[in-house]
From TrEMBL:
Region ranges (Disordered): 1-49
Pfam families xref list: DUF742 (PF05331)
Compositionally skewed regions (Basic residues) per UniProt: 1-10
The protein's name: DUF742 domain-containing protein
Entry coiled-coil feature ranges: none
InterPro entries in alphabetical order: DUF742
Highest rank taxon of the organism: Bacteria
Signal peptide residues on this chain, from the entry's feature table: none
Amino acid sequence: MTPPQRRRRHPKEEPPEPPKAAPAPAGQDNPKEPERLYVLTGGGEGGDRADIDLVTLIVARADVPPPAIQPEQSALLRLCKAPLSVAELSAYLNLPFSVVTVLLTELLAAELVQARAPIVRRALPDRSLLEAVMHGLQKL
């Protein structure tokens, strides 16, 4: 014998469908779209890129960006008033590293920014210096 099954008095309501993402208004493309990134980098023209890695520091040479540059390059110049690494610039602009290197290569060619190698510290400090500091602290 099977147990009787209960029926609900009120049928269970289905949860409402989540709202669909509205398409972006004209002229405001999503920067993650490949077409947009292709346009930002100049359509693959040129080819040589500056020797830049993630920790290269970028500093702007110009205070005011020239009016003829792309908005992304203008944003790069505004961010680079103080030295920033390429990784930080990529994160702030929400652009892939490869796109940022292409934009920076154009800015370097126009001499609007300067690339600096990061400060490299020695693996181990000089032992004699550490001993001198230790003896100096012990005398205090």
